[in-house]
Amino acid sequence: MNEMKKKKPFSLYRLFIYVVLIALAVSIIVPVAWVFMASIKQNNEFYGNPWALPAGFYFQNFVDAWTKARMGEYMLNSVIVTALALLFLLVLALPAAYVLSRFKFVGRKILNVAYMAGLFINVNYIIVPIFLMFVDGNKVLKSLGLPPFLLNNLVVLALVYAATALPFTIYLLSGYFVTLPKDFEEAAYMDGAGYHRTMIQIIFPMAKPSIITVILFNFLSFWNEYIIAMTLLSDPNGGKTLPVGLMNLMKAQNAAAQYGQMYAGLVMVMLPTLILYICVQKKLTQGMTLGGLKG
Amino acid sequence: MKKGRRRSGFVAACIIPATVLFVIFMIIPTFNVFRMSLYKWGGYSNKKKFVGLENFEKLMRDTKFLQSFQNTVLLIVIVTVITMSLALIFAAILTREKIKGQNFFRIIFYIPNILSVVIISAIFSAIYDANNGMLNSLLSIFRKGADPIYWLGDQKIVIFSLAGAMVWQAIGYYMVMYMASMSSVSVSLYESSALDGATKFQQFFQITLPLIWTNIRTTLTFFVISSINLSFLFVKAMTSGGPDGSTEVFLSYMYKQAYTNSSYGYGMAIGVVIFLFSFGLSGLVNLVTKREPIDI
Fold first, then answer.
1. pTM of the full predicted structure?
2. What is the ipTM of this complex?
């Protein structure tokens, strides 16, 4: 409104605001851009001025990281785990959230309270008992003559990710489902649709914006996670996810400096999330107001 | 009758798979944290001995644990105060003022939140590096020839370095969240208060803050839990608790006891303390920030 009046004269206050905002923006852009720059530097360039521009485009870092540091393999693992975990999560959480928010049944209240309480339990609080549960489970499997498959298994890791993301996801989805008027289902039942069909063909398509939000947030948390992955994929020579492999590279970096490889690895972890973010930043920042909290 | 059966069948089919997994991977492990804390248990050997509260008694005399307690509290206080106040101020500026490139700032400020903590740790290791780090190289303009500052090597400084990385990570997320709730505050309130001669400062404290108080309250409650967790993620990737335990926090100490030391019972006693502490603190925050809701 009244654009004319808003055109204020130059003021120190506004200049100050711009300076502060730009300073903060620079403090975010520069370090991230620096990693990209460092990823194409040769190793000896890391011992001089950190602000020096790369001498050339040393792409060998990426090749080394991909093969020598096994980042290629780790990336595939990360893709598999993240995709599987998202699939598990949606298959589990969507029906559960729908029923919990729209059907009255015995035990509903208790379940709602339990899932609410789950919001306060951070996975890293309970990672030790989960790990020990798998150790015990493997012993049982062995005694039955079966292969002990519970540790160092990408599918099991994905299942743990999905299960521990349930409270937050159900909370978010239920928050949407309760706002729908009852008429949708009643009309569907009138037309002879069963419960399953009503849920899958009428309700879920309407919840698409919430589902996308759920996928985005959980993609970020699964892709970036490393404590559970590190614990459950404990075989030192076995498969790892990208962040875990990267952390090992960082630790090894102190002994035998392979800076170039490490920063190339960082770019590999960062790039997918950055690209996704640029594509969907609006959705992501809008979506968070739905939940109002962070898992 | 038949319809009722079909209905309950449907409800069960929807709810049982999720709930079974939820119970196996969240409820039971949580109970196990509490149960195992009462045992003396050395890991794989499976020799469990019930010792009651002995682990907790030991914990109270364990100076390393007390240090991790202190570090955790310090980090929570510093990070919460700085993050929340800066996020609120920036959000207020970006929603209230006509800023050019408002959208650009919003997009940039949110970036740290989508990065893995491993990446942020690597970035900050490069920033804090004593010899070739970005920070020391910038500071050397002002302090020529002085000894480099050991951001991650000096026991007195390292915890604040860690806090800096945590604030950098969290600020954008909360800013965007507060922007969303601030933009729902009616503009007419600001206009009429401006007519009454209220300054921007007064508007912030008397209109903006009270009206988004519910949101601030919820975020604060969860921020406590999330910073206990985040401090662990950063410590694990950046300092491993060092130098000499000066950045050890609750969860990193628990993890160390359980995996490096294989004393699971003792580790779980720490887990119990973490649970009680985080619930207690969340409850306290919730209680202290209780205000009469304002409806407009």
1. 0.89
2. 0.88
